[in-house]
Each structure stands twice: as structure tokens, then as C-alpha cells.
Amino acid sequence: MPVPVRAVHRPDGHFWWFQQVQTGIHDMKSVLLSSVVALGLSAALVSPVMAYETVSTVAPGGKGFVGLGVLSKPDYEGSDDNEITLAPFGQYFWASGRYAKLGGTGGSENAGRLSLNLITRDSSENWTFGPLLQYRLKRDDDVDNQQVKRMKEVDAATELGVFVGYDTGPWSAEVSFAGDVSDEHDGYLVYLKGGYDLMQTEKVLVTLGVDTTWADSSYMETYFGVDNKNVGSSGLPFYKPDSGFKDVTLSLTGVYHFNKTWGAAANASYTRMLNDAEDSPLVEGNQGVGDKNQLTGIFAVLYSF
After folding, report:
1. Does some domain include residue 3?
2. Per residue in 160-178, pLDDT tens?
């Protein structure tokens, strides 16, 4: 019977920097080629939104998985209206232990993420590290709230960054950074994420997660600010937010493998907007039209290969 396992690799060698120089060139070419393919697929599937990174489990002996979920999440960050969409995601492992993952940033953000772990199984039993690419969906008049609908559109943004993670036993932690390279919000974010496996049996994995996000003033002004450049005909009061922690999220994820090939996953999360994000008129500040309490959920079917 399959066991839901994480991407934790055990070392069987030392001096891995020298080994990478000698043996990692072929793997790197495969990573880059597959990344181009994955990015092309993600561009085709990015609308309306991608799913979470928290669903990350592969049946034993497999090289990866793909999933498709039904996702309910706020139609903009800080909204009190949810939309239901389809959400693709997946993960692929190379023989070296490197992997590519397509998922999302979680919380109430409408952003997808493609990340590449560059550390091989010969290098470390606990650490992961690599680049990431994020695509943040636009906020336009396709939202339920009539005032936000009349604000100036925020175009989609492309962000580049890096992540580093540590996984030991049931505990995991990750820090990641992403900065705008599309001149849309010209800001950057720092994500802090932790997880604990509450249950892991032959077929079941249940994980509790907590994460928080720090955003700089440029990001905050773009997505939570109101000024004469973006107010449009919304009638919302002007507001200039500052940098800081914008949210904290508590999530619960469950995965069940029916067999070596098929499985199902579910995730429920609660996000609490914080500080200047919470006080924004788009959320719950003066004449606020949103909600500081954000609920998100997904149910997905998994195919392992």
C-alpha cells in the first residue's frame, strides 16, 4: 500500500559542491528544459488561479504527481466575496533528488508559483534551496464588490525570487523572497512558512500549517492603498499603507492515496489580515468594503506517476 511521503532525501555522500561540478551539469540542463515546459503549461493553466503548495505528496516509487482541484478563495486579496475556480498543480522529481513544483503562494493571494529545488540527495538530508517564479493575477472589474470594481485595474505581475527550506521528521519550515520584475507593483514580499505532520499512515497524511507574509510599502500601496491614481469612481477614502506583516494563515491539509496512482486531497485555511492591510478601505478600515477574515478551501484529485 502506498505511503504519502514528502520530498525528504537522505545523504549518501559528502563534499557535494565538488560532486555537483562533476555530475550536476546534465541534471541542470534537464531542470531548465523541464522548467520551460512547466512554465508554458502554467501560462496556459494560470487562469483563473493556481492551487496551494501545501498539497505536496508523492506515492512511493513515483517520479511526481499532477492534481486538479476545485478552489474557493476571495476574488481579491481582502475581499469578503469568494469565487470558485479550477486549480492545477503538481510536482516532478529527478533521479538526483532535484524537483520542480507548480503551486501557489497560499493565503488569500491570487498568485501562482513555480519553484525549483537545486539541492541533490547527495548534498543534504534536510535542506532545500532554489529559485522561484511567481505570477500574480490582475485585479480588475471581475470582482463582486461594486466599489472595488470601479477602481483602476491592477495588472498582472511577474515576480522572481528564491526559497530555502528545512525539513526534519514531522517538522518543516521555509523562507522565501519574491520581488516584482514586471514594473507593476515594484515591491517585494517575504514569506515565512511552517508545517507539522499530525498523522502519517500507509495511506493518509494530515498536516497543520502556519505562515505569514511581510510586504514592502510599494506592494501595500498597490493592493491596499487608495489615491488619486487608482481611486477611479469607487468613492473609497484615500489611504496610504506602510510596509509590514500583512497577514497570517492557519491551514489544515489532508491527503488520501486510494492506490499507487490515484489519490485525493483537501485543504482548508483561515487567513487574518493584519496591520495596514487590515485597516485598508478595501478590507475593514474606514468605510471598509472587504473582510479581515479570509477563508479558502480546495478539494483535489491527484494522479501520481
Report:
1. no
2. 999 999 999 899 999 999 9
